[in-house]
Design goal:
This protein is α+β, with helices and mostly antiparallel strands and 463 residues long. The chain has four domains: 15-58 and 162-231, no CATH class; 74-155, Alpha-Beta Plaits; 244-267 and 449-460, no CATH class; 270-439, Uracil-DNA Glycosylase, subunit E, CATH 3.40.470. It is built from 13 helices and 26 strands. Strands 19-21-20-23-25-24 form a six-stranded mixed sheet. Strands 1-2-11-12-13 form a five-stranded mixed sheet.
Length: 463
C-alpha cells in the first residue's frame, strides 16, 4: 500500500461511487477494500452514504425517485408505537395533513430530518430520540401524541461481502433488489468488477440534479450486457499494482481490461520522478531511478482530469486534512490539478523515519524552501509546460516563491514562453467569473494517452 501519495489509491475502507452507462442507467460501484478508484471519488463512503446523501457534497441534493424506486429501498413497515425509544437512520411516513406541525416539531432537540423522500407521500428519512436530557417531551414524543407519524420503515441493508469459494470470488449481498445496478470489486484487482444486481426499476442519470450529474462518469457500455468490466479502461483511476511504468513523468499501471487482455492504464499525472531534478540527490546519494528518495518528504498532489485547464499551486507544507478544504465539484475544480511547487522536500530524518509535510513545517524555513525550489524549479516548470493550463491559482507562499523566478506583472506570469493569467487563492470567490471563463476554454496541453498497450510499452522501454 502506498502511503506517501496521500490519495485514495488502495485503501482499507469502504468506497462507493456512481457510474452511468450509455443508456443513462446508473450503477453504484462498491469496493469494500481495494480496487481502482476514479480521480475525485471520495473514500470512506459506503452505498448507504451516497444513496442517502450522507457525504458533504450531496447531502442537500435530492434525486427524484419514483414510488416504485423508493419502495425498493425501504422495508418492514410497522406502526410507530411498536418501535424502540431511539430511531436511527429510518424512514417515516407522516399524515400529510399534519405536515406543517411535523416540520415545526422536527426543529426540536433529539430529532434530525435528514431528507425528504417523497413530499406527496409524506416520506422522510430521520434520526430521532425519545429521551433527551433536559427535555420533558421530545419532538418525537409530541409527534406520537399528535399521531403525526403513520408508519416507520427500516432501510434496506445494501452492503455486500466477498468470499473465496473453490478458488473463485463469491459475493454475498444483503438485499433482494435495489433500483440501481450494483457492482462489487473483489479485493484482488486481478478480478474485474462483478454485477450483483439488475434493477427492476432502474434509476436514470436524468433523475439526478445537474450539480450531482456532472460528477458521474458515463461509460461506453450497457450495464445490462456487462456482468464484468474494468472501470479504469475509461476513467482515470488511482490504483496500486505491482507493475507500474513511468512515461514522460506520468504513471501507468498494468491492469486487466474488460475483454480479458492486459494493458497499462493512466493512474497518476504526478509520477515520482523528482530525483531527476533534485539539487540534493548527490548529498543524499539518491538513485537515478525515480525511487531513490523514499526518506524524503513527498508532498501532496491531486488530479481531477488528465486535460486540466486550471493548475492550482500550493505550499509543500500543506497536509491532507487542510488539503481537502480545496476539494469540491464546481466549474473551476472539476477542471483542476493541484500541485505543490516542490514534489519532495529534500530533508532526511536522522532516524530514517518517513516524514509528512506537517512534520517539516517547523524544521525548514521559508527561505530554505525557496532555495530548494530555485534549484529544482524545472520540475514544476516542465509540468506547467506539459499541461499549458489556461490559468494558474497560487496560494500566498507559492506566489511569494515563484515570483522570485518568473516575476508577476499585471497579474500574469511567463513560463517557457507562454504567458499565464495568475490569480491568488484568496481571490477565487471575488473573481470566480473570470477564472471560470478561463477554466472552460479548450485544453491546449499535451494529450496524455489513457491506455498504452503492452507492446507499445515494450517499445517505449526499448525492449
Amino acid at each position: 500500500m502506498i502511503t506517501d501519495k496521500e490519495y485514495p489509491a488502495t485503501h482499507s475502507m469502504s468506497t462507493a461511487w456512481y457510474a452511468a452507462d450509455e443508456d443513462g442507467n446508473v450503477a453504484i460501484i462498491n469496493y469494500n477494500e481495494n480496487g481502482p478508484v476514479p480521480w475525485g471519488a471520495e473514500t470512506d463512503l459506503c452505498i448507504e452514504n451516497i444513496i442517502w446523501g450522507d457525504d458533504e457534497d450531496s447531502k442537500d441534493l435530492s434525486i427524484t425517485m419514483t414510488d416504485d424506486q423508493i419502495d425498493e429501498m425501504i422495508e418492514n413497515p410497522h406502526h410507530p408505537k411498536t418501535d424502540s425509544n431511539w430511531w436511527y437512520n429510518c424512514a417515516i411516513q407522516i399524515d400529510t395533513a399534519k405536515e406543517k406541525l411535523f416540520l415545526e416539531l422536527a426543529k426540536g432537540r433529539g430529532f434530525t430530518l435528514k431528507k425528504c423522500l417523497s413530499k406527496q407521500r409524506g416520506l422522510y428519512l430521520v434520526d430521532a430520540d425519545m429521551h433527551v436530557r433536559g427535555v420533558k417531551r421530545t419532538s418525537l414524543q409530541k409527534m406520537l401524541d399528535n399521531e403525526v407519524i403513520i408508519k416507520v420503515f427500516d432501510l434496506k441493508d445494501m452492503d455486500n461481502e466477498e468470499d473465496w469459494v473453490d478458488e473463485k470470488v463469491v459475493f454475498k449481498k444483503n438485499f433482494d433488489n435495489l433500483p440501481y445496478y450494483i457492482y462489487g470489486q473483489p479485493y484482488s484487482i486481478d478480478f474485474l468488477l462483478e454485477r450483483l444486481n439488475i434493477p427492476r426499476n432502474p434509476i436514470k442519470l436524468s433523475q439526478f440534479p445537474e450539480t450531482l450529474r456532472r460528477r458521474i462518469p458515463v461509460l461506453p457500455i450497457k450495464f445490462s450486457e456487462k456482468k464484468n468490466f474494468q472501470i479504469a479502461e475509461w476513467v482515470p483511476t488511482n490504483v496500486y499494482t505491482i507493475e507500474e511504468n513511468i512515461v514522460d513523468g506520468v504513471e501507468y499501471s498494468l491492469l486487466k481490461l474488460t475483454d480479458g487482455t492486459e494493458a497499462y492504464v493512466l493512474t497518476d499525472l504526478n509520477a515520482d520522478v523528482f530525483v531527476e531534478y533534485c539539487s540534493e540527490k548527490e548529498k543524499y546519494q539518491c538513485e537515478e531511478n525515480g525511487r531513490g528518495c523514499d526518506n524524503c518528504c513527498r508532498c501532496l498532489s491531486y488530479q481531477r482530469t488528465s486535460s486540466p485547464t486550471v493548475m492550482q499551486i500550493f505550499s509543500p507544507f500543506i497536509d491532507s486534512f487542510r488539503f481537502w478544504d480545496y476539494m469540491g465539484y464546481d466549474e473551476i475544480k472539476i477542471h483542476s490539478v493541484w500541485w505543490a511547487f516542490l514534489q519532495r522536500i529534500p530533508y532526511k530524518d536522522s532516524q530514517n523515519y518517513y516524514l509528512f509535510p506537517k512534520d517539516l513545517e517547523h524544521r525548514i524555513s521559508r527561505k530554505q524552501l525557496e532555495e530548494y525550489y530555485l534549484k529544482s524549479y524545472r520540475y514544476l516548470e516542465d509540468k506547467i509546460d506539459c499541461f499549458k493550463p489556461r490559468v494558474l491559482i497560487l496560494d500566498e507562499l507559492s506566489e511569494e516563491v515563484m515570483s522570485k523566478k518568473y516575476g508577476i506583472s499585471n497579474g500574469r506570469m511567463t513560463i517557457c514562453g507562454v504567458e499565464y493569467p495568475v490569480f491568488k487563492r484568496s481571490e477565487m470567490e471575488s473573481r470566480r467569473a473570470e477564472i471560470e471563463a478561463l477554466a472552460l476554454l479548450p485544453y491546449r496541453g499535451k494529450k496524455i494517452p489513457h491506455i498504452i498497450t503492452v507492446d507499445e510499452m515494450k517499445k517505449l522501454k526499448g525492449e
